[in-house]
């Protein structure tokens, strides 16, 4: 419960900006992942990078594609599969929201402190490592 409360407290800093631009948290994660990637990604890769389940991701992709924020490209070797990339419209959204998001990160860092954030990241990495050790 403490992890969920912390997540909600952090996301409360980001939601107003995303809402102002008509995006959900998950849509923003997809745009950030595609923007950071040097190559188009398959849906499975995107799902792993964004921690969004495939059924949810499929719905998000349709919405982002209708909004012209992403592009879907058929694979020549498997016409049933597709690769995804960010479009010009998606890049424009990232260019607008990115600096606002960074300002929210900076605000969080100022409130919590660099040392505490580093320790938190170390502890969370430790938890993930320990819990995923059997996988």
UniProtKB/TrEMBL annotation:
It comes from Pollutimonas bauzanensis. GO terms for molecular function: DNA-binding transcription factor activity. One of its GO terms (biological process) is response to stress. Residues 1-129 form the HTH marR-type domain. This is Homoprotocatechuate degradation operon regulator, HpaR.
């Amino acid at each position: 419960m403490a992890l969920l409360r912390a997540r909600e407290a952090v996301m409360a800093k980001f939601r107003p900006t995303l809402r102002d631009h008509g995006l959900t948290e998950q849509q923003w994660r997809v745009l950030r992942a595609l923007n950071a990637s040097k190559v188009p990604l398959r849906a499975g890769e995107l799902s792993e990078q964004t921690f969004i389940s495939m059924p949810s991701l499929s719905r998000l992709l349709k919405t982002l594609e209708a909004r012209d924020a992403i592009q879907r490209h058929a694979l020549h070797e498997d016409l049933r599969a597709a690769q995804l990339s960010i479009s010009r419209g998606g890049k424009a959204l990232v260019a607008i929201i990115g600096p606002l998001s960074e300002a929210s990160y900076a605000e969080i860092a100022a409130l919590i402190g660099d040392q505490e954030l580093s320790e938190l990241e170390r502890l969370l990495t430790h938890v993930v490592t320990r819990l995923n050790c059997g996988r």
